[in-house]
Write the structure tokens for this entry.
Amino acid sequence: MTAEIQASRQDATLILTLSNPGARNALHPDMFAAAIEVLSTAERDDSIRAVVLTGADNFFCAGGNLNRLLDHRKMDALQQAEGVDLLRGWIEAIRDCPKPVIAAVEGAAAGAGFSLALACDLIVAGQTTRFAMSYVKVGLTPDGGGSWFLSQALPRQLATELMIEGKPVDASRLHALGVINRLVPDGQTLHEALTWADDLAGLSSNAMDRIKLLAREATDNSLSRHFEAERRHFIESLNHPHAEEGISAFLDKRTPDYK
């Protein structure tokens, strides 16, 4: 069966579903290119206010296809690097998307599947969901930014533990550590993510885009440089129509209408 990204809409939310039947939604290069294209389209579509990434059949993603990786050993280093860079392109498309991207994770997220979830702005997970940075189990090292995301989210010792052992970790532990935003009953992650996305759709898209940028830049900026970035975004936001509507609505005690 075909590995693909299935795109659908619910109101103002774009739903991207990882689908690779019989392979626990293992990733494939065709999925990378399709996801990048649909995210690029969503970026230009003002009617889309949020994106939800989920997996088919109550399972998020098992990571890379190991049989395909064995075949890659027969390729030269340049061809091998092209495969890694395709995943990087997808991760960067998620990070660069001006709309909030929410991962709805059921079952498990392993290897690059874990990296993919970590790339999203927000994560909703089922109570029995398990996450594993499992590369070391097959003699590999993380890709898709997984080592960077974990090292940003956790103390060095904890991030190292998850990567150097490669053992599955329960969603409840990651929730307690602040890596997962919301922990919900199994089978309810997509509903919760869509409800959250619907709530976000009522907020200023201009402000959310800039907040995503500030959060991303904060990891590399000194405080002095970050003050300058905050000043720039604040002034540009103040002069955006959304600020006029938001402030006026607050003073008028009504719900703002961010068009």
In short: The chain has a mean pLDDT of 94. The two ends are 41 Å apart (CA to CA). Residues 19 and 25 are 5 Å apart (CA to CA). The domain at 205-251 is CATH 1.10.12.10 (Lyase 2-enoyl-coa Hydratase; Chain  A, domain 2).
